[in-house]
Amino acid sequence: MLLALSDVTKTYPGATAPVLRGVSFDLDRGRMLALMGESGSGKSTLLHLIGGLDTADRGRVAINGTDLTPLDDAGRAGLRRGTVGVIFQQFNLVPSLSAGANIAFQARLSGRHDPAVDRALADRLGLADHLHKYPEQLSGGQQQRVAIARTLAARPDLVLADEPTGNLDEASAETVLTLLMDLVAETGAGLILVTHSERLAARLPRRLRLQAGLLA
Ligand SMILES: Nc1ncnc2c1ncn2[C@@H]1O[C@H](COP(=O)(O)OP(=O)(O)OP(=O)(O)O)[C@@H](O)[C@H]1O
Q1: Nearest protein CA to atom 27 of ligand 1, as residue
Q2: Measured distance CA(61)–CA(105) in Å, rounded
Q3: Angle, to 10 degrees, between the axis of helix 99-109 and the axis of helix 140-153?
Q4: CA-based, 20 to 30 A from 196: which of 36, 154, 210, 212?
Q5: What is the pLDDT along the chain (216 residues), one digit of tens a residue?
Q6: Domains (ranges, CATH) in the chain?
């Protein structure tokens, strides 16, 4: 099993009520799901726990059979580097690096850099003519395609995408989601896509909805 969550509970320090009250679900390799829920329902919190950026108070978050919960920061970072890739709504590109260097960045960090993989991704994402440009010289859709290439170039087992098309117009959002889903499917990774859009969520084979700290 690529990802297994059981009874995951999270209360932020100082908060009166838990954000997550016992969330359980599994995701196999090569499977995709949309994670939905109202603003503040805990979607980003859940992605942070899965990505090892924060820890659950109770329950189990296992990636490829390894429970993240008892690991220290360094242990979680090590596991994340090799297995989980995150794509954010704000793209989070490094402004001082060209598009090409941004694409190579994470793969280099995880010791998996392969220029042939970068080139193939740049071609598929329509970025081949833009690799010398800096993020500020790219459109929003192009920046998000660089962010997708950067994540996939590191060949993660699991891709977490937090509103990856939230900053794009409707047509660009459709195009970018199609490319993301096609490329993830080709690598055989799993995908969790957080979205507020019913229309985009309907394109994924499975949908989960967070409500009052539980999956509805
Ligand atoms: N670091 C934090 N410290 C304290 N409270 C937090 C923290 N991060 C999130 N929260 C609170 O936890 C709740 C869930 O936030 P979260 O960002 O997970 O929701 P979300 O479903 O992703 O929302 P949105 O759709 O608006 O992005 C909110 O009430 C938020 O204020």
Answers
A1: 39
A2: 27
A3: 30
A4: 154
A5: 999 999 999 999 999 999 999 999 999 999 999 999 999 999 999 999 999 999 999 999 999 999 998 899 999 988 888 799 999 999 999 999 999 999 999 999 989 999 999 999 999 999 999 999 999 999 999 999 999 999 999 999 999 999 999 988 999 899 999 999 999 999 999 999 999 999 999 999 999 999 999 998
A6: 32-54+74-207 (3.40.50.300)
